[in-house]
Amino acid sequence: MMGKVPSFSPGSTVSSALPGYVAFCLALQVHRLASAQFTVTGPDSPIAASVGGEAVLPCHLSPRMSAENMDLRWFRSQFSAVVHLYSGGQDQYRQQMPEYQGRTELLKDNITNGSVSLRIRDIRPSDDGQYKCFFQSSVSYEDAILEVQVAGLGSAPVISVEGHQDGGIRVICRSAGWYPKPEVLWRDLQDQNLPSASKKISQEANGLFQTVVTTVIREESNQKVSCCVRNPRLNQEKESAISIAELFFPRISPWMVALWVILALLAVLIGLASYCFWRQHRTKETLRSELESEKDKLQAELRWRSAQLYAVDVTLDPDTAHPNLVLSEDRKRVRDGDKRQDLPDNPERFDYCYCVLGAEGFAGGRHYWEVEVGDKTDWYLGVCRESVSRKGKVTATPGNGYWVVWLWDGGYEAGTSSPTSLLVSARPSRVGIFLDYEAGEVSFYNVTDRSHLFTFTGTFSGKLRPYFHPGYNAGGTNAAPLIICPVPAQARGNLCPSQ
140-187 pLDDT, tens per residue? Predict the structure, then answer.
């Protein structure tokens, strides 16, 4: 017998189905959110890498999902220290740290399965340490920590004999190219450790370690020793040995003692005779040195006086000034304003170096001007070619079109291909610059004591312009400006305009 089918009104049907529909929508939303979540997993153990080789840093998503449209970033201690960046479906290199440029490659063969690896080539000691791989989707992000352990197996030890010491023979063990810091041991024929007389394990500029370790071999050491250099991370070592015949060990005899006594007496007599001779000539040498010094000073002052005859009026060109520099209305003073000004980025303007050029250009002749530096702790002065690049970093060398001297970190230097330290007898409060175009010379003078600082020599081409860099505003005396001074008429010592 069939049961009676119940009847429902339209209103009752909607009201009874609504709670189920709401529950279904909520469940669907939770499922969508859950599907957008993921974790990033890296290797469980450190990644070993050899110096000069390569390392592969793998990371993958769990659960598996495509990472093609995600942002992937490998970085070191800080998020901005980018080792490699993948964004917008392609590799991005603008934010990459300089030391990793040209050395990284993202392996994307399995990126649709959420598995990617970063290959780092030409491994260096600086690559040692922790990395983070960071995955970011449109709704979530996660990262994982990886560790790279760099190791380098250095050269085989080279042992050399250096001479006698303390009744034995001093030998030195040298080796290079190790990472991390190696262990060095001396062993005798019975494989027993020998003490080191000295030990120096130093890190070179390339980050690798070199060893210079000495020991003294005595006759009772069986005349054979080995030097063992061990890499504790690789648990590998390299060893070299040396044997020294018995006849090379020192012997003490009465005749040798007598000989040493005679030699000591002769040394004393020779020393006394030398002292007397030195005393006789000391006054003469001192007087000659003083005369030479006075002669050099006089010649330097004469050259400076001659240079002043070619004094020119130099002003600053505001179109070349870096936006942080503040120029006076008369264009004779310049200082670091410690704040970037809103100035047009014209092609003539320096955008990186805090410098400004003189408005005047010289394509020949002789020209002299003076600049007041006062008590500033940081400044750069000289000339440069008008054609030098105004954008980006500046390396002030003649090869790049700059003839400049400077004061930096308490030292005076000239910008030769390798900076030349200058011996300054008195701190210059004013510096004179003399350009002799045809002679190919740019000379610098300490106006304070009328001494010569430095002269560049070479061959000039094209127009040259005065160069000024007031240093960075670190407060105190360095906040003061550089001032282009009028050259004293007939060297009467006129002062610069007051600051």
Answer: 999 999 999 999 999 999 998 887 776 678 889 999 999 999 999 988
**Residues 472, 336 contacting (CB under 8 angstroms):** yes
Reference 325, options 293, 357, 371, 288; nearest CA is 357
By C-alpha distance, which of 328, 312, 367 is closest to 483?
328
Query: What is each CA distance from 69 to 29, 82, 88, 114, 461, in whole angstroms?
Result: 22, 19, 6, 11, 55
Q: Which residues pair with 384 in a beta bridge?
A: 402, 465
**Phi/psi-derived region of residue 295, left when phi > 0, alpha when psi is between -120 and 50, beta in every other case:** alpha
**Amino acid found at 330:** D
- Give the tens place of pLDDT for each residue, 309-348: 999 999 999 999 999 999 999 999 999 988 889 898 899 9
Per-residue CA distances from 261 to 256, 258, 477 (Å): 9, 5, 63
Round to the nearest angstrom and report the end-to-end CA distance of the chain: 117
Which tokens hold the place of 333?
A: 């003073």
**What's the longest Cα–Cα distance across the chain?**
147
Strands, E assignment, 34-167: 39-41, 47-50, 55-62, 71-75, 82-87, 90-92, 104-107, 115-120, 129-136, 141-151, 158-165
CA atoms within 13 A on the CB side of 81: 9
What are the b/e assignments for 127-156, b being 16+ CB within 10 Å?
Answer: bbeebbbbbebeeeebbbebebbbbbbbee
Could you give the CA distance from residue 319 to residue 330 in angstroms, rounded to a whole number? 14
Tokens of 390: 């105004």
* Cα 331 to Cα 343: distance, rounded to the nearest angstrom: 17
- For residue 469, list its beta bridge partners: 380
What are the start-end ranges of the H helices in 209-253?
Answer: none
Give the chain's residues under pLDDT 70: 1-36, 166-167, 219-223, 245-254, 283, 286-287, 289-291, 293, 489-499
Q: In what order do the strands lie in the sheet with 482-485?
A: 325-327, 333-336, 482-485, 366-372, 430-436, 441-446, 451-457
Let me know: does 398 contact 449? Beta carbons within 8 Å: no
Tell how strand 55-62 and strand 82-87 pair up. Answer: unpaired
63 preceded by cis ω (within 30°)?
A: yes
